[in-house]
Amino acid sequence: MAETAVTPIPASIVRAISAIKATVEAVKKSQKNNHGGYMFSSTDDVYAAVARKMGEVGYHLHALEEKCEIVRIEKEGKTVQWLHAVYSFLHATETDTWSHPKDRRTIYVQITGPQTFQGAQSFAEKSYIRSLLKLPSGDVDLDSMPQAETEEDQTDLLAPRKKKSSASAKRDGTADVFNELRGAISSANSVTQLQLIKSAHYGTWQAMPSRWLEILDAEYDDKVAELESVS
User: Fold this and answer.
1) Distance between CA 225 and CA 169 in Å, rounded?
2) Which residues contact 100 (CB under 8 A, 6 or more apart)?
3) Has residue 87 got a pLDDT over 90?
4) pLDDT digits (tens, 9 = 90+) for 149-204
């Protein structure tokens, strides 16, 4: 297959992007991922961090919808609808425009209402801007997520298990795991390490008796706040 020729990016666009990168630092993290327990930047947080600067340097980024396909999947007698969307991006200054056919973002997301379509575009834009400007936004890296060799094992790894009672948890050894997790949280020396701890034990964590779960969540949040205050 022949490679697509790359048209050089106009100098005015390079200068505009570089000017934004030189002034924008960390993005506010206003949202919490309930699965991983970490704070992350929403699309609005990213927009708030860069939109004014983009205007100041005369730079515009426009998302173009290349594909919008609804995929229907039958499972256990029910129909689930997924959106398969592809977006490309147009860069512009007062004097130049530039795009490339391989400069795209692909989104697969389950359709839960009309907001799914707007949400897909917003997520694609957020992902693209993060990559373009190298923005630290707090989203967890894929490398830090628990991994399994098969789809079935991965689903089992991430799926919450049935919550235990305190009595059964004490009998089956879960109390020891609870204390080990508390110790691991206390000794963690980075937010990334904390994320790894929670992701790797997510099923067990969520199956803890309610009071134990409250303790783990509270100690986790306190440790995140402590580590972020000194970073």
Assistant:
1) 29
2) 4, 6, 7, 88
3) yes
4) 444 445 555 555 555 566 666 666 678 888 899 998 998 888 878 877 877 777 77
Average confidence (pLDDT) over 84-113 = 92
Distance, in Å, from the CA atom of 85 to the CA atom of 108, rounded to the nearest integer, reads 7
What distance in Å separates the CA atoms of residue 82 and residue 68, rounded to the nearest whole number?
Answer: 10
- Looking at residue 176, its amino acid is D
Mean of pLDDT values over 43-69: 89
Q: Which amino acid is at 94?
A: E
Assess contact for 124 and 107: CB atoms under 8 A.
yes
| End-to-end Cα distance, the chain | 47
Residue tagged 């100098």 (tokens): 11
The pTM of this model reads 0.57
The one-letter code for the residue type at 231 is S
As a whole number of angstroms, the distance between CA 206 and CA 163 comes to 7
- Write out the H or E segment, with its range, that includes residue 198: helix 191-200
